[in-house]
Amino acid sequence: MPSTASRPTSAPPRGAPGGTVPGVPATRRAPGAAGLLVAVRTRLRHAAPALLAYAAVRLTGLLVLAFWAHRRHHGVWPILAKQWDADWYLGIADHGYTHQLGTAYDANNLAFFPLYPVLVKAVAALTPGSRATTGLVIAVVCSFLAAWGVHAVGSHLHGRRVGVLLTVLWAALPVGLVQWMGYTESLFTAFAAWALYAVLTGRPVWAASLAALAGLTRPTGVAVAAAVALTALVSLRRGFSVRALAAVLLAPAGWLAYVGWVGLRVGRWDGYFAVQRLWHNEWDGGAETVRRLREVLAQNSSPELFLVMVTVTLLAAVVLYALSAWDRQPLPLLVFSGILLLIVLGSGGVYFPRARFLLPGFPLLLPLALHLARASVRFRTLVLTSAVLGSAYCGAYMALVWPSAP
After folding, report:
1. What are the angstrom distances between the C-alpha of 173 and each of 90, 95, 240?
2. In the beta sheet, which residues pair with residue 347?
3. Is the pTM for the entire model greater than 0.90?
């Protein structure tokens, strides 16, 4: 059985003005905006070690990338701001979405959800610089909001040390460089982390609002919506609540709105899923995943290093989910991680981006953070140093050597 130390703490009272932060003295409630500002400052001060550690990890990766790129006579900014999916989002910000389904494979921009390119277009209209620069700045800012949310979840459940360790582990994932690229992973993780924190602290409407925004950001927003809605449904067993019912209805609204809009735009009810088929993203129950795992692990005598990393990430994620269930993580975390894993492993689409697709699944890292929190300082330092350096190398390799999208 899991130890008592690994079990979550209880949520703060429903009437609390945001709950208390473990290890932070309670402050006198101030009215209105002043009270909100005091609460934000207190929480930001509590999260400061995690945010500083996050910045250090990502700056290490950026320095390794810059050094390697300089040796190869390659610019860093285009890699981070304009390549692969970033180019698709910039195209949507510049020209909008296509009006028809078409028949060409890997060519329909309706596969990309709208919130990030809308933000890029809106912010770029108010600020100097190109839209590519704006998109990169948004991603970096959102990465810190995401790191803050990851720390908030870990700290709420198991204390400040675990919160910091969880943040560092999330920053040091092999594909962590994507957090500072013109992609949607940072924005999506920010919504997901704060939605899960809102659920854990008894704010179902806030959680559902953030889940709806996550559903406008990435297809896997359905995992956030399911976590919030199912938790709200379970709470209704204890008695009727208007807020819980509102959360059930609101959480999937963003995802359903975009999927419905795509259907109307192309003139067929399954329009979004037809677009996904043109991107080879049909559901096959994991057959393609198993085939590629077998190919990398057994059939190919010299597999590409990046594909090995993706394979190890997928297998580690399955093991970590089993450990998360053994540790009896709270229901919303298990639902979110479980559905995210189900989507990634069950897709028949391309194999190589799947480590990136799992990047928002930070609750999977909680068992590691708990173990490191109980380990010796020497062991903890060795593991974290190895993770940071490995992430820096994998990120640079992914951007400069691997010939396709991360």
Report:
1. 26, 34, 41
2. 283
3. yes
Extract the tokens encoding 297: 């692990």
- Fill in the amino acid letter for 285: G
d(CA 356, CA 1) in angstroms, rounded, equals 32
Residue position matching structure tokens 């979110």: 336
pLDDT for 16 equals 36
Q: Which two tokens stand for residue 337?
A: 């991680």
- Under DSSP, the state recorded for 353 is T
CB 351 within 8 A of CB 310: yes
In this structure, what token pair is assigned to residue 20?
């208390």
> How far apart, in Å, are the Cα atoms of 256 and each of 130, 186, 205?
32, 22, 17
What whole-number distance in Å separates Cα of residue 233 and Cα of residue 197? Answer: 17
Query: Three-state DSSP class for 1?
Result: coil
349: phi then psi, degrees, rounded to nearest 5: -80, -165
DSSP line for 159-215? -HHHHHHHHHHHHTSTTGGGGGSSSSHHHHHHHHHHHHHHHHTT-HHHHHHHHHHHH
CA distances from 187 to 4, 191, 254, 281, 283 (A): 33, 6, 15, 22, 25
Residues 352/156, Cβ–Cβ less than 8 Å: no
Q: Are 177 and 401 in contact (CB under 8 A)?
A: no
CA neighbor of 289 nearest in space, from 347, 362, 205: 347
Three-state secondary structure call for residue 2: coil
Task: Give the C-alpha separation, 220 to 63, whole Å.
Answer: 31
Token duo for residue 64: 């390794």
Joined together, the tokens standing for residue 200 give 């854990």
Structure tokens at 167: 């943040």
If we measure between CA atoms, which residue out of 173, 250, 197 comes closest to residue 12?
197
For residues 345 and 297, give the distance between their C-alpha atoms in angstroms, rounded to a whole number: 16
- Reading the block at residue 247, the tokens are 């959360």
Per-residue pLDDT reduced to its tens digit, 301-353:
899 999 999 999 999 999 999 999 999 999 999 999 999 999 999 999 999 99
Q: How many CA atoms lie within 13 A of 252 on its CB side?
A: 13
Helix (H) or strand (E) holding 245: helix 242-250
